[in-house]
Design goal:
Layout lengths: L3 H31 L6 H20 L1 H12 L7 H18 L3 H24 L2 H28 L7 H6 L8 H29 L12 H14 L7 E5 L5 E5 L2 E6 L8 H18 L18 H16 L2 H15 L7 H8 L13 H19 L8 H13 L25 H21 L2 H6 L3 H11 L9 H9 L6 H15 L1
Parallel strand pairs: 1-3
Antiparallel strand pairs: 2-3
Helix pairs in contact: 1-2, 1-3, 2-5, 3-4, 4-6, 5-6, 8-14, 8-20, 9-10, 10-11, 11-16, 12-13, 14-15, 14-16, 16-20
Length: 514
């Protein structure tokens, strides 16, 4: 009989090789989103499908199952909570992978590559019918996947879940539609009223459009983004920045962290705020428990959930980059880059950073309307997966719902249902993590201020690293030792609710109006 140490080492070696293959897959994905020629999409799809099938085989094989079982059998009374948690997470993922048909895994990878290529073309031409067949195929495959995963969940004693809930588990373990209803209902009840209040106040004041009357050249925006990253700890020895059609971040290895952004004509803050957002993701990734190679293959070295991941990116974007103190520090740089002062001072610059006006594009949305963008996408994901909404009816339904929730109506599909990349990759179940991230961020901010005092005061003194240090001590090292709800309660002392986020928004609106 093997010793516990030998059993764990054999399992670690297997996981290490699996991670190597996974990082190759991620590298090809990053290349696809940044520099891959359009005509290379078909071959890239075959490459990704091959790797996806190999990864699935390694994560579901009998040999791997024996390694996990051997490691489980080696547990004794003295086994650490970390070891037990790692093996529990590995067992759950193993059972999920064993229920998936390898052929389905390959077909999904190819459909994702095709979907991404068609989405890019369809968005450029605002032509939803061009993308519709790819979306239909991805929905069909994800429904099939949800059915197979449900078998694994039943085998592990989980309660029955809807298709959407089943697919969402990879992003938010334990998430349910009932929980989202509890958290999203206060947002739907209070945010539209806040939007109307802001619009009425703006109408009385005679304020003009929130679209800036100024712009910055791409190279100037790029330099401002570079300055921001340098101040916030960007290390070119292990980090890289590129352009992509949709901003994202990606970890390709224990010391390889990538970030992308995009320049949007007429939106001179877009790249700057997107850079702050994506760097929040990468700071979290760099702060996860990966002190050496021992941690990287194990589940505890992974993110708790995408809601926690998004809370970190939204914290940097909204609590830092959109804050009044941070705006006062950066106002002279933007003024110097523009060679003019269209804001009439630092306060006007801060107001420009926070237009608080409902818009069509999610990634450009202000804090007031952002969560309603997510509610819309969540509703449509469920309706599409359950065939309550037909794919061809999506654009018209999207436009109607945007008008109901936010009071704006897209002029074309590019600024409507084609604006996000997620469905082109079949990532159904991801969107609620964005709104949950706002709620988590607000609750963590309250806990931080109990320890450090007002965040604005820290930023006003240039103590950004003190803020990062608190997150690095209280949030990032937890990894997957806890689920998202448990993390929030452990750090803040209370269950996750929408209250702190709504309180924060109302306070910010008062200050913006002052």
């Amino acid at each position: 009989m093997s010793t516990p140490g030998k059993a764990l080492e054999r399992l670690r070696q297997h996981l290490h090789t699996t991670r190597l293959l996974g990082s190759i897959h991620s590298t090809l994905y990053y290349d696809q989103n940044t520099v891959l020629p359009a005509e290379g999409a078909t071959w890239r799809g075959e490459q990704l499908a091959l790797l996806a099938c190999q990864l699935h085989e390694r994560q579901s094989s009998e040999a791997y199952a024996e390694l996990v079982a051997e490691a489980e059998a080696s547990l004794d009374a003295d086994a650490s909570p970390e070891r037990r948690r790692n093996l529990l997470l590995l067992r759950r993922e193993l059972e999920r992978q064993r229920c998936l048909d390898p052929d389905l895994v390959g077909r999904l990878a190819q459909a994702q590559a095709r979907g991404y290529a068609l989405w890019q073309e369809a968005r450029r031409s605002a032509d939803f019918p061009l993308f519709a067949p790819a979306l239909s195929e991805l929905l069909h495959l994800r429904r099939e996947e949800a059915g197979q995963l449900a078998v694994a969940e039943q085998g592990m004693g989980d309660l029955p879940r809807s298709r959407w809930e089943t697919l969402a588990q990879r992003f938010e373990p334990g998430i349910s539609e009932h929980l989202l209803e509890d958290l999203f209902t206060p947002l739907q009840q209070r945010l539209p009223a806040l939007i109307r209040r802001v619009q009425e106040e703006r109408g009385r004041s005679g304020a003009v459009s929130a679209i800036p009357a100024w712009d910055l050249a791409e190279e100037v925006q790029d330099d401002l983004c570079r300055q921001l990253l340098e101040e916030w700890g960007f290390d070119p020895g292990r980090c890289r920045r590129d352009r992509s059609p949709h901003p994202f971040s990606c970890t390709l290895g224990p010391q390889d962290f990538r970030i992308t952004t995009r320049m949007v004509p007429g939106q001179p803050f877009s790249a700057f705020l997107a850079t702050a957002h994506e760097w929040g993701h990468l700071l979290y990734e760099q702060g996860l428990p990966r002190g050496d190679d021992h941690w990287f293959p194990w589940p505890l070295g992974e993110a708790t959930s995408m809601a926690v991941h998004e809370s970190q990116s939204l914290f940097l974007e909204c609590r830092l980059a959109r804050s009044q103190a941070f705006a006062a520090r950066w106002y002279p740089r933007f003024q110097g880059a523009l060679g003019a002062d269209p804001w009439g001072g630092a306060h006007g610059f801060w107001r420009d950073l926070n237009p608080m006006r409902p818009g069509l594009i999610r990634v450009e949305a202000d804090e007031l309307g952002y969560a309603l963008h997510i509610v819309l996408r969540y509703e449509f994901e469920r309706a599409l997966l359950e065939s309550e909404l037909q794919v061809n009816d999506l654009p018209a339904a999207w436009n109607r719902r945007m008008e109901e929730l936010l009071g704006v109506r897209p002029g074309n599909d590019a600024e409507g249902c084609l604006q996000d990349v997620h469905w082109s990759e079949g990532l159904f179940g991801y969107f609620p993590s964005y709104a949950l991230g706002h709620l988590v961020s607000a609750q963590l901010a309250e806990a931080m201020e109990r320890d450090l005092g007002p965040i604005e005061e820290r930023l006003g003194r240039g103590e950004d690293q003190t803020v990062f240090g608190w997150l690095a001590e209280r949030v990032w090292p937890l990894g997957r030792s806890v689920e998202a709800g448990e993390l929030v309660e452990r750090v803040s002392g209370a269950p996750l609710t929408a209250g702190p986020f709504l309180t924060y928004l109302e306070g910010k609106l008062e200050r913006l109006a002052g």
